[in-house]
Specification:
3 helices, elongated, 5-stranded antiparallel beta sheet, 5 strands
Length: 140
């Protein structure tokens, strides 16, 4: 049974696409009438601010322990669910049980496609430089 996996990498695609969108807006504004140019510059500035804020959030959270229901945690749990052959349809819940500076303990309940549920405890912890997710107990 596979019960431990490195945490999934965060997705930086939205940050990159935001930067590309800002560049396209600025290029389009150069060929536009003055009123449209100012409007496009305003939209480009807003897009750039949101993109920078998202990038800062992602960079500052590198190496920190994510929440039990964070996207990276759910992605990692989904990989573990597949490895353990849980044919899950959805999470009923994911909740935080405890948290310290070095570990987050959680409980998750999965609805199975064939009917029924499986519930398991897992922990998120640092192992050297890597953040890992480990299933500690399974209840069927």
């Amino acid at each position: 049974m596979a019960d431990e996996k490195d945490l999934a990498s965060p997705n930086y695609y939205s940050t990159v696409s935001g930067a590309a969108g800002t560049t396209m807006m600025v290029q389009a504004a150069r060929k536009s009438p003055p009123w449209l140019r100012y409007l496009l510059y305003a939209f480009a500035a807003i897009t750039a601010l949101v993109t920078v804020a998202g990038l800062i959030d992602r960079v500052t959270s590198v190496g920190s322990l994510p929440a039990c229901d964070a996207k990276t945690t759910r992605d990692t749990l989904s990989d573990l669910n597949k490895q353990n052959k849980f044919n899950a349809s959805k999470y009923n819940f994911i909740k935080n049980v405890g948290k310290t500076d070095t570990e987050v303990t959680c409980t998750a309940s999965l609805a199975l496609k064939a009917g029924g549920n499986v519930e398991y405890d897992f922990r998120i912890f640092k192992d050297g430089g890597a953040v890992k997710v480990k299933i500690t107990e399974i209840r069927r």
